[in-house]
Amino acid sequence: MMRITVLTGAGISAESGIRTFRAADGLWEEHRIEDVATPEGFRRDPVLVHRFYNQRRADAARAQPNAAHKALARLAKSHDVTLITQNVDDLHERGGSPEVIHMHGSLLGALCANCGHRWPATLVMRSLDLCPNCGKPATRPDIVWFGEIPYHMERIWAAVENTDIFAAIGTSGQVYPAAGLAQHARRNGAETIEMNLTPSAVSSDFLQHLTGPATQVVPAWVDRLCD
């Protein structure tokens, strides 16, 4: 069975109405990245950070999986697929994918900044929420912020090293280590393909390029693989 590793980024969820991570002006939903997506920002103003992610969680709950999410779920039924996402929404799961590696965490998770305990997030989280393990008011979103190490990297590198096809969908190629996965896959003999509205910052690492909306190019690509 063909082994396929897929990396998805903000572009695949954008067509479900979830805004991409960073606008051209460097702001995210009118906030500086440093204020809402770093450990230092959380220490300075945990109330702001929780308010920001509560809104992201509500937006994600309203969004619906699109044709690209559903196509990848269909691909997993006929091939050995490792699905890695930089996104923190659960649209892949709701689209039918059986297993998703969230390298940047998930809006559905809560994390204790004091003891490291994890538990399911409520729709609205507050800075004074107590950790169910240690009892400290140190609750934060289980999101990998700038300056932190992405999750599941050993598993991700192993999948990339042993894959036949590596596909990146809707990624900017600006955030490492995710941006280095295509080069690693190609170095290990994989076929590499990029699906994006525009070429990414690491477009030269890909042998093939499919340009267009994810809801169009991903289902068409899956159709070819499943024929």
Description:
- There is one protein chain.
- The protein contains nine helices and eleven strands.
- The strands form three sheets. The chain has a six-stranded parallel beta sheet, sandwiched between helices. A three-stranded antiparallel beta sheet has the order 7-6-8. A two-stranded antiparallel ribbon has the order 2-3.
- α5 (67-76) packs parallel to α9.
- It has 227 residues and is of the alpha/beta class.
- It folds into two domains: 1-18 and 65-104 and 150-227, TPP-binding domain (Rossmann fold), CATH 3.40.50.1220; 19-62 and 107-143, 2-Layer Sandwich (SIR2/SIRT2 'Small Domain'), CATH 3.30.1600.
- It has helices at 10-14, 33-36, 39-44, 46-62, 67-76, 91-94, 153-161, 181-187, 214-226; strands spanning 3-8, 27-28, 31-32, 80-85, 101-102, 105-112, 118-120, 139-143, 165-169, 191-196, 208-211.
- A hairpin with a 5-residue loop joins β6 and β7 (118-120).
- Its EC number is 2.3.1.286.
- GO terms for molecular function: histone deacetylase activity, NAD-dependent; NAD+ binding; protein-malonyllysine demalonylase activity; protein-succinyllysine desuccinylase activity; zinc ion binding.
- Substrate binds at residues 53, 56.
List its traits.
227 residues, alpha/beta, SIR2/SIRT2 'Small Domain', 2 domains, 6-stranded parallel sheet
Please give a quick description of this structure.
With 227 residues, the protein is of the alpha/beta class.
